[in-house]
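Morning F.,

Quick status update on the modeling queue. The single chain you submitted on Monday has been processed. Sequence for confirmation:
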Amino acid sequence: MVNKVKPAEGWPVIKGEYEVGNPENPVAVSTCGSHVKGASQLTAGAAITGPQKTENLGIEKIVANVISNPNIRFLLVTGAEVKGHISGEAMVMFHKNGIRDNRVVGATGAIPYIENLPDEAVKRFQTQVVEVVNMIGIEDEDAIVAKVKELAAKDPGALSTEPAIIPELETEEDAEEDVEIAVHIPRRTRPAILAC
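C-alpha cells below.
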C-alpha cells in the first residue's frame, strides 16, 4: 500500500472549470482545449480533470492545484491543442525546462509567460510530478482512460512533504471580491491603485 496524505484544506485551492475525483488519486488530467467528459477518468484514477486553454494562467492554476495535493504524481496532457496559445505544449515544456525570465523555456505559444509562480513552486511541481505524459491531439476517451489506469497502477505514493500553497494566486472568488471593492473606490484614488 502506497503512502497517501491529506491535501491542502479546501483542495482544489484554485477554482476553475474541472471535475474533481478522489484527492488520493495520483493523476491529474489536462484536456487542453477539449471538453472530454471526466467521469470515467476520475474513476480510473484521476484526482482532477479539465481543460487548460492558456499557456500562462492555465499553467499557474494547474501548478497551484497539483502542489497543494502531494498525492498527484502524474500529469496527463491530452485533447486538442489550443490554436495560438499552444497550451499543451507549454505545459510539457514547463515541466521539462521550467522558466527563464518568466518565459516557459521551449514553448512556442503566443504568451507563455508565468508571472505568479515563485521559483520554489516551479521546482516543487517538477519534483512532485514524476512524469508528464504527452497525449496532445488525443480525444478518444477510451485511450485517455487506459492511460490514466496505467499511470494510477504505477502510483509511487504521495510526495513526502506538506501540501504547498502559493499565496500570490487568488481564487476566482477573491478576484470577484476585489472587483466589488474597486467599484466603490472613489475615482480620484483609482490611478494609484492601478499603478501598484
